[in-house]
Request: fold
Amino acid sequence: MKIAVAMSGGVDSSVTAALLKETGHDVVGVTMKLTDDSRAEVDAADAARLLDIPHHTIDLREVFARSVIDYFCREYQAGRTPNPCVMCNRYIKFGALWEEAVILGAEVLATGHYARVEKDIGGRYLLKKAFDKNKDQSYFLYLLSQEQLGRTLFPLSALTKDKVKKIAAELGLPSANRPESREICFIPGNDHAAFLESYMGVVSSPGPVLDEAGRALGRHRGIASYTIGQRKGLGIAAPEPLYVTAIRPENNAVIAGSKEQAYGIELVAADINWIAMAPPDRPVKLKARIRYRHPEALATLTPQDDNTVHVKFDEPQMAITPGQSVVFYDGDTVVAGGTIIKRGK
Reply:
């Protein structure tokens, strides 16, 4: 079986390729060219050469800009906080890249994600958490379809990050001790406002910071620089710490309040992708995660007719953020996920 490995030049994808080759598979490395920066393709080509596997760079800049970067910019301009990695996984890595890998003869796509795919007794593919819960990336994969899950391998699913680094060091991979980047890949320095200005010519205009009653507290430097729950960077002296509680693009305002006011107990999520089950016709109780590093919390999901769900948590949650993903779990299994479109009180 010929397996295409999505290689970024990092330790996870490089070890993924090594493990598959070691078990006798016909492995080809494929790297997405997403921006004009060539570091990833150079690093990936070096790793493939060391592992003695063929390597191809696939130019996906146009579709990446259309499907991910444009979406990212629209969301920030609308006062929401987008999740570009989720969209990239569905439309680019497991979509456009896969289509190119098929042309190269690949039957399966493997990635360095920390997650698992299993099949239930009814033949449905299930997305599950990795065994290393500190590295689990199932949150970013909730939009994958049954077809995409069925043609995907996650060889690192049972390994810890430390074990992966050890394997890389033993193989002499240069990525073994390279620090992980936590930046969005297409935004230098993680400066969202500067990127919007350079990419779209949109200058982030200063505006008012208001309290929940509409009273002026100060000025912000542009709504693209803020997200719900943010504390640092407001630059406002107050008797108690202030947090961003809402962003209102219609009047270019950032709303700030107490930590208590940054909590909410309800949300509405749209574009739900049901993985482990068909859309239910009655409320279900699951655990929900509203950001990647946010703890899971018990919630009741009530499906609506327009593929949205109303979610009510058992306990208030900090910084429910429109634009972010909410992913629903039953134990280790990803049941469904969607995009938060509204935060309730």
Summary: The chain has three domains: 2-177, 205-258, 263-343. The radius of gyration is 21 Å. Residues 84-103 form the longest helix (20 residues). The chain is about 25% helix and 30% strand.
